[in-house]
From TrEMBL:
<dbReference type="Pfam" id="PF00383">
    <property type="entry name" value="dCMP_cyt_deam_1"/>
</dbReference>
<dbReference type="InterPro" id="IPR016193">
    <property type="entry name" value="Cytidine_deaminase-like"/>
</dbReference>
<dbReference type="InterPro" id="IPR006262">
    <property type="entry name" value="Cyt_deam_tetra"/>
</dbReference>
<dbReference type="GO" id="GO:0008270">
    <property type="term" value="F:zinc ion binding"/>
</dbReference>
<feature type="binding site">
    <location>
        <position position="56"/>
    </location>
    <ligand>
        <name>Zn(2+)</name>
    </ligand>
</feature>
<comment type="function">
    <text>This enzyme scavenges exogenous and endogenous cytidine and 2'-deoxycytidine for UMP synthesis.</text>
</comment>
<dbReference type="InterPro" id="IPR002125">
    <property type="entry name" value="CMP_dCMP_dom"/>
</dbReference>
<dbReference type="GO" id="GO:0005829">
    <property type="term" value="C:cytosol"/>
</dbReference>
<keyword id="KW-0479">Metal-binding</keyword>
<keyword id="KW-0378">Hydrolase</keyword>
<feature type="binding site">
    <location>
        <position position="90"/>
    </location>
    <ligand>
        <name>Zn(2+)</name>
    </ligand>
</feature>
<protein>
    <recommendedName>
        <fullName>Cytidine deaminase</fullName>
        <ecNumber>3.5.4.5</ecNumber>
    </recommendedName>
</protein>
<keyword id="KW-0862">Zinc</keyword>
<feature type="active site" description="Proton donor">
    <location>
        <position position="58"/>
    </location>
</feature>
<dbReference type="InterPro" id="IPR050202">
    <property type="entry name" value="Cyt/Deoxycyt_deaminase"/>
</dbReference>
<feature type="binding site">
    <location>
        <begin position="45"/>
        <end position="51"/>
    </location>
    <ligand>
        <name>substrate</name>
    </ligand>
</feature>
<dbReference type="GO" id="GO:0072527">
    <property type="term" value="P:pyrimidine-containing compound metabolic process"/>
</dbReference>
Amino acid sequence: MTPQQQQTLIDSAIAARGNAYAPYSNFLVGAALLTDNGGVVAGANVENASYGLTLCAERVAAGAAVAAGARGIVAVAVATEGGAAPCGACRQFLNEFGSAMTVLCVDSASGRVTREVLLSELLPESFGPAALGGTRRP
Ligand code: THU
């Protein structure tokens, strides 16, 4: 990932956060993915009156990336107040598309990266496609 790509990811995550639908928690999250074909795809959290149906920003972004044809993710930027790390469910969901991806936690107010870490460090000994024999459908 080039410095320019990293800055684009950060900017995209912060912009997407502005579209978050989070009337219940008021915790706005934006995520932006760099796919292995060089594309950038963003998402935001989408809450629901039936709380448990809430979609996290990372999973919204990953779903959009797959729908756009991507199958590999190189990096993800997650923008929140304070620069929080992705939740456990999102770590697992992202792992499907690249355990070696770089995770950038971004403080939305300053745009600063609070943490840069590999997904494999956030989700050690993960369960992934290889556990199913590597027989992945397209
Ligand atoms: N949330 C995300 O979008 N991503 C995470 O990794 C953690 C949590 C959202 C879900 C909910 O809308 C709000 O943040 C508070 O949990």
